[in-house]
Amino acid sequence: MTTRRVAAVDIGAGSGRVMLATVSEDHLDLIEVHRFANRPVRVGGTLHWDVLALYAGVLDGLKETAGHLDGEPLDGIGIDTWAVDYGLLGPDGSLVGLPVHYRDARTDGISQKVAATVGAAELYNRTGIQDLPFNTVNQLVAERSGSRLQAAERMLLVPDLLTYWLTGAIGAEVTNASTTQLLDATTRAWDSDLAGRLGIDPGLLPPLRHPGEVLGVLYGDVLAETGLTDPHGGPVPVVAVGSHDTASAVVGVPADRDSFAYVSCGTWSLVGVELEQPVLTEDSRAANLTNEAGVDGTVRYLRNVMGLWLLRESLRTWADRGEEHDLTQLLAAAAAEPAGRWPVDVDHPSLLPPGDMPARIAALCRETGTPEPETPAQVVRCIVDGLAEGHRRAVDDIRRLTGRDVEVIHVVGGGARNTLLCQATADACGVPVLGGPVEATALGNVLVQARALGVDLPDLAAMRALVRRTQELRRFEPATAPTTPGPTAAPRPTRSSRRPTAAT
């Protein structure tokens, strides 16, 4: 039996961490060895990612990892982050400015300009990607005439940029590259013609890489700084994983059947199913569903729903006012509020940028003539119900457009801890919800690495079976069963009285 010890670098919009895993065919153990903040910085009116601080956090995490190895070698490292954002490299390989945050306002109105140039239907037919203002293609068009892009020779998405700094390897892992809206959905090759029509130099786009490829080995100075020098004298490889964190999370979904949907729930709720081929119809485009590349040639057919960002921004707003709230207590108070009293569209564009989220939610309620939530508990109830309704709409549209039955929904990621949200999702969708694993992204990351390094996990089914055997899951039954089985929309039932726990 083959055993591998690998590190997962997993960076989300709020924080990053380095996890150490021991993986074999019948064993999967994961510990967090280091966590670091991911704090965006506004400079000159533009919101940036502090990617140098993130790189320092990665190095600190690898140093902590070395301390946990007890002299044993580290077999591999895999990196996943959020999607769409990028760094630009100049001719000498140096970074040209800090990466810009996808929530920055520079892309306002750009997607309409892109659609006017290419045509919305053609753009979707070629790339299969959901129309979102912050897609990479919109960001590149927004800075098309700027000095940064004119000075750049390569564009590297954030996980690829970190890999470059660790190893010198230049490439674009395909699951993340698919989110740029510059990848052909059918061939999974860069659409150079599309880039050229939009005034983007196709030469910016690096060679594509696939999960399971060894991208490179750690530089000698990185080995020295982190203490990861292999006592056997061998290199420490960086392995391509599903570098879009959702792609890794879907690998970690503990499904035992094809008729499942998933909600990868963190800053965003990514609600989808796993397909073999993209759905590129006009109805799919109208429903704003996306076809992102998954591990092992799969398609992540999903919709982005705003996610726990709404709750985090609300908590931050209250804290800025001097109002400290315990999230567990807030969720318990929210569970006592009536469900559905404060309906709000959680995907409204006004909720995308940072700011006073409770005030924006109240404004949306006024616009639609519905009651405004007046207390923090009512705001939380409004957010949870809105997210559950967003999950239901996505699942219903996916059922309708694919003909696929959904017998169970897996909620993975941080949202799996939020029992109020899991129960509300089960109630709204009318099917059972399985909550967990919380660490699905890191698990998917290390499983792909372990397979590439010789552990006998031949396919996604084997990986998911190992997750089921080793991870804790929790089941939530809908308060009312759906009246019509199969791919048709289910009625929205009443809420349950399950006591909630905290997670954002």
TrEMBL record:
Carbohydrate kinase FGGY C-terminal domain location is: 261-452
What name goes with this protein? Rhamnulokinase family protein
Q: Which CDD domains match?
A: ASKHA_NBD_FGGY_RhaB-like
EC category: transferase
Q: Name one Pfam family in it.
A: FGGY_C
EC number(s) per UniProt?
Answer: 2.7.1.-
Q: Per its record, what are the GO molecular function terms?
A: transferase activity
Composition-biased stretches (Low complexity): 491-504
Species this chain originates from:
Aquipuribacter nitratireducens
Question: Which region ranges are annotated with the description Disordered?
Answer: 474-504
Q: What InterPro entries does its record include?
A: ATPase_NBD (IPR043129), FGGY_C (IPR018485), FGGY_Carb_Kinase (IPR050406), FGGY_N (IPR018484), Rhamnulokinase (IPR013449)
All copies of domain Carbohydrate kinase FGGY N-terminal, residue ranges: 8-252
What family name appears in the similarity comment?
Answer: Belongs to the FGGY kinase family.
What are the record keywords, sorted? Answer: ATP-binding, Carbohydrate metabolism, Kinase, Nucleotide-binding, Rhamnose metabolism, Transferase, Xylose metabolism
Domain of life the protein comes from: Bacteria
